[in-house]
Fold each of these.
Amino acid sequence: MEENQNQGNQNQEKAKKIIDDVTLVEKSKKGDKAAFEGLVKLYSNYVYTNAFFILRDSHEAEDVSQEVFVKVYLSIKNFRGLSSFKTWIRKLTVNTCIDKLRVKSKTFDKKLSLESFEENYEYIFTNLNHNIEKNFFTRETVKEVLNIIMSLDESYRIPLILRDLQDYSYREIAILIKKPIGTVKTNIHRARRIIKEKLKYEKGKK
């Protein structure tokens, strides 16, 4: 009973957010600055979290967040609503992150600091865990899985994030990262296998 009530509350919140999206987007398209600030407030954590997953750097994620909202501000008048605003801003975020990675002459696999990840864990868990649970065991292992994903090599991490956390198709991922679709599928398969092996190893230590 309580579970059904919680589900109902979540659905109401989701519906309210969609209405807010439509209202704020339409007002922003007419130059309403307060409405645009409302969109920024509504989606700032979402943009930052997605950028952080791909870039693994809190400062770069913040830079991307600012850049994305500048792009939104400059181009929102052209937003036709063929997809949801959330889908649109997600694509802008991913594309901006991919562009940032491309301009680097070399990508160094730096030692990862999970400080920002830990700070934003509750938000990440609430918004992204449904896909993680679907692909990787149970709710109890979600945090472990996120930590493993963040430690993966870029060639595995980015396709996996786009597929399992963002619901991009293999074809869309291949276009985004400019890799053959066969390579994309192979790397995602290997990434999932690495996660399962590490989870099994960690479970064996307990």
Amino acid sequence: METNNSTRPSSHTRTPRPRHSILDLAPLELECLSVLWPMGEGTVGDIHRALSASRPRAYTTVLTIMDRLTQKEIVTRRKVGKAFHYQARLSAEEARLKAVEKIVQGFFDGSPAALAAHLSSRPEQPQEVQPLQPAAVRTTREPRPAAPAAVDAPATRVAESRTQNLDERLL
């Protein structure tokens, strides 16, 4: 049976949908924004030079990242001569607020007070890292499973002798 693929969009005609959450940024995207914010406006060359001070990157990599940020509508660009000048659509403070809002909504049921209480109760030295779960899901702490008994433990020997007696009866 033959299917008609003409109704499916091909992968090369798909347009990326903008993401409007600062937490959806890749680490290098955030690095580029962190360089762009104090500049106010800059070219790929400006951003590339500033990033190269801490870790060398290819010019084309920075160009690609800035293009992605434009597609995500996180930065705007305007043509000046032969170069594009990029400008962030939100300030560093606005980005920080959006990131914290997302954390409060996702992990603390929308309660900034719950986040503040969590931060103030954290010990200075982190102990065991627990997997992250949304606050609504995390209602009780599940007990950890008991460690398996050592092979030579008395309880194991008793269980083995019971199994051996049962095996002898079945034979």
